[in-house]
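Invent a record, attention on tokens:
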Amino acid sequence: MRIYALVLITLILMCSIVFAEVSNYKDALSLYQKGNYKAAAQNLKERVENNPDPYAYYLLGYANYKMKKHSEAMKYFRETYVLDPTFTPPPLKK
């Protein structure tokens, strides 16, 4: 019985972590779409430190591009394709 409880608790914790990561990306995307590139970049930097993700790196690159930090943007765009050489950019609004 204890093993089932432990497995259930583990699954719940894993789901909450995954949900938090998805929510974090959606928050950053929302900030980007509102034109708050600095906040989006800060949010995305925290995300990629914990979970290297090509979509997050790509959006981080665009946030830096919009802030006219072109060399930093290129660094994040390159990292996108290091993680996934077949990455296809999603359409970004704004």
About this structure: The radius of gyration is 16 Å. Residues 25-94 form a domain with the Serine Threonine Protein Phosphatase 5, Tetratricopeptide repeat fold (CATH 1.25.40.10). Residues 15-22 have pLDDT under 50 and may be disordered.
